[in-house]
Backbone:
């Protein structure tokens, strides 16, 4: 019986680790619409997109940091390849980094950032978005 319970616990751990649905915000990048889940607490930022196997088209996760700084991201327990764009308070992209699944390599903002937006790897490049481009819709976020 113990081994059955242990096997069930190990098999379901990634599923149980998933967080409940987060609120979403609609962002704009040129003519492109992004529907991003909002990770704006310590717990939701730590969980991020861990254990997910896919993202919806034009779906991502917006990390809202408590303060502007040189924030870094990593991919431990994240199963899908992602690109992350670090954004300043006005929504301008500071830099974009491609991140590999299950990697503990840090990817950091090139200059102080307030937000990080994770999308399916290559999403920004496929749409011609790079440093300096500005995203719309961040004004929808209530200040903490």
Residues:
């Amino acid at each position: 019986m113990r081994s059955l319970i242990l096997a069930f616990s190990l098999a379901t751990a990634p599923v149980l680790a998933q967080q409940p649905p987060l609120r979403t915000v609609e962002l704009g990048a040129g003519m492109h619409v992004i529907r991003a889940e909002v990770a704006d607490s310590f717990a939701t930022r730590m969980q991020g997109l861990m254990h997910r196997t896919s993202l919806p088209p034009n779906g991502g996760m917006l990390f809202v940091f408590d303060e502007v700084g040189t924030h870094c991201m990593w991919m431990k327990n994240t199963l899908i390849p992602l690109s992350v764009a670090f954004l300043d308070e006005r929504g301008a992209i500071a830099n974009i980094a491609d991140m590999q699944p299950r990697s503990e390599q840090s990817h950091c903002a090139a200059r102080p950032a307030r937000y990080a937006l994770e999308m399916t790897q290559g999403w920004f490049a496929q749409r011609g978005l790079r440093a300096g481009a500005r995203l719309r819709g961040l004004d929808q976020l209530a200040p903490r």
About this structure: The beta strands are 24-29, 32-39, 59-69, 72-73, 82-87, 93-99, 107-108, 113-120.
